[in-house]
Design goal:
With about 300 residues, this protein is of the alpha+beta class. It contains ten helices and nine strands. Strand 4 and strand 5 form a beta hairpin.
């Protein structure tokens, strides 16, 4: 059974709608879904297996985990089911659908244009390139993509003035980031982290990836600095000037985002979620969650339950 959260329809070209979706699959049961449009699925939490019925090409059956992206450019019948035979599944995704009048869905197994748009290509050109074939992408710790998804979810939840054009811009960003991820450009290797002449964005990106990989552990500036080979003072100043947040503020936001995913996709108690997301106690977790989300973890979980009925 599927539930939609924070749906935003009527977006500008080339998008149709964006929303969060929770898919629940009972033990031994599969959840079928008929797809009629081109779309991108970003897995936020939970895991399951996904199959495209009637298709025996690449990625016809995949194991979806947090951080994965499923590219579906075709009309097709999808099937969600548990990771193990007879197991249940609950997965939370962001579903970004594209306007079928501007980007008609391709026949199952077809392949669209393979030319990477130039720097001036519009959103439709990037979407057409991104959604040219069925793909399963592992974005994992891609900081830019994770941050863009986080901003999108915040805008959809809060609905502050101007949220609609803001959401449109974030959807364009997600599409371009997915296109870049799928372009399979040659890997040029890492630059030396000890050289301060390396662009600041490189160091900040490495720091973000490091923090994302250690969500369940305390954050120590000394360890972050040692990882990138820079002094603590330089790391603190560089990160703050580039992101507007301290290293610790950024880590806290990552933990709150992960806590939201766990609250939506698991039945774990609050103390266990606090532990899994690196907070020292339930009190500290609840205080920080309320500061960022505007409600307590229990209220957030009840709101999710209210939306899905």
């Amino acid at each position: 059974m599927g539930y939609s959260l924070n749906r935003i329809e009527g977006l500008a070209t080339p998008f149709q709608e964006v929303h969060e979706q929770i898919v629940e699959v009972a033990p031994g049961i599969s959840h079928p879904f008929q797809n009629q449009v081109r779309k991108l699925l970003f897995v936020l939490g939970g895991e399951c297996r996904h199959q495209i019925l009637g298709w025996d090409g690449p990625w016809n059956e995949v194991h979806l985990r947090p951080g994965d992206i499923l590219v579906l450019p075709c009309r097709c019948k999808q099937r969600y089911f548990g990771v193990e035979p007879g197991s249940e599944a609950r997965v939370q995704v962001v579903r970004l659908s594209f306007d079928p009048e501007r980007l008609p869905p391709l026949p199952l197994g077809a392949r669209g244009k393979a030319t990477l748009p130039d720097a001036d290509g519009d959103a439709s050109a990037w979407a057409d390139y991104c959604l040219r074939e069925i793909r399963h992408l592992r974005a994992g710790r891609d900081a830019a993509l994770s941050e863009t998804l986080g901003h999108l979810r915040d805008e959809a939840e809060r609905r502050a003035p101007g949220f609609r054009p803001r959401v449109h811009g974030l959807c364009v960003g997600l599409t371009i980031l997915c296109a870049r991820l799928g372009a399979a450009e040659p890997h040029t290797g890492d630059s030396p982290t000890s050289d301060r002449r390396v662009p600041a964005g490189y160091h900040v990106g490495k720091i973000k990836s490091y923090l994302r990989s250690r969500l369940h552990q305390p954050t120590h500036l000394s360890e972050v600095a040692a990882f990138v080979g820079l002094s603590e003072e330089y790391v603190a100043r560089l990160f703050k000037s580039t992101t507007g947040l301290t290293v610790f503020e950024y880590a806290r936001r990552l933990r709150i985002t992960e806590a939201k995913n766990l609250l939506a996709t698991t039945d774990d108690n609050l103390s266990e979620i606090a532990r899994q997301t690196g907070f020292s106690s339930l009190t500290v977790f609840s205080r920080n969650f309320r500061r960022d989300a505007g409600m307590t973890p229990s209220e957030f979980r009840r709101e999710i339950a209210r939306q899905i009925g």
